[in-house]
Amino acid sequence: MKAIILLGAPGAGKGTIAEGLKAVSALIHVSTGDMLREAVKKGSPLGVQADGYMKRGELVPDDLIIRLVETRLAGGGREAAYLFDGFPRTMEQARLLDDCLSRLGGQVDKVFLLDAPRDLLIARLAGRRLCRKCGTNYHVVNIPPRREGICDACGGELYQRPDDGEATVLNRLEVYVRQTEALISYYEKKGVLLRVDSSRPRQQVVAEVLRMAGALAGA
Ligand code: AMP
């Protein structure tokens, strides 16, 4: 079992780059943010517990996240290659991911740190729109849909994530510095961290990540 991680602040482009990589590889995309939003939409017990944290831009407690990811990984075979987007976000999650992967005969293969200046992160989050039906990412300026407010892929309605409002965005950036940034040196010490300038257009970033990743599953 292989694992590739996309690490970076909110707005660094993790979801967008994951979509680009998914389109050209056999990687299985695991976005804890998407899974949690789905749980909130359904009103499942996990969704009910996670909702408040997400609205405030805080992290959902580790035990809930670990259980979510473990269940997801249990379904994959030894040959499965995962692309994690938005996970891990704390040291505890990173350590538990290592344990979980080693139990399943795998390890973290590469971690791409998507790097972009803070003002760009804020502008990206403010203009971000998502499809309500299929989750495809847009941006009002950088990645506009062909018809305003409508998803190119499925015709679904585009919406702004409630946690992309200004005050919550600032909190999410602070939470990233406080709780997630420590993972950079954790993975650097393991020798698996690769830095990518993600302030460039999406196609360039996807191409560079693919080049740096070498033989990605099915790429
Ligand atoms: P994202 O879509 O990755 O920006 O995640 C949206 C929100 O979901 C975050 O602000 C957190 O509240 C929650 N979340 C997503 N992934 C995690 C995680 N790995 N650990 C804790 N909370 C998470």
Overview of this structure, please?
With 219 residues, the chain is an alpha/beta fold. The protein has 2 domains: 2-116 and 174-217, Rossmann fold, CATH 3.40.50.300; 118-164, no CATH class. The protein is 48% helix and 17% strand. It contains 9 helices and 8 strands. It has helices at 14-23, 32-42, 45-56, 62-74, 91-103, 118-127, 166-180, 182-190, 202-213, and strands at residues 2-7, 28-31, 81-85, 107-115, 128-131, 137-139, 158-159, 193-197. The strands form 2 sheets. The protein has a 5-stranded parallel beta sheet. Strands 6-5-7 form a 3-stranded antiparallel beta sheet. Helix 1 packs across helix 9 and helix 4 runs parallel beside helix 5. It is globular, with a radius of gyration of 17 Å. It starts with a strand and ends in a 6-residue tail after the last helix. The model has no long low-confidence stretch (mean pLDDT 93). Bound molecules: adenosine monophosphate.
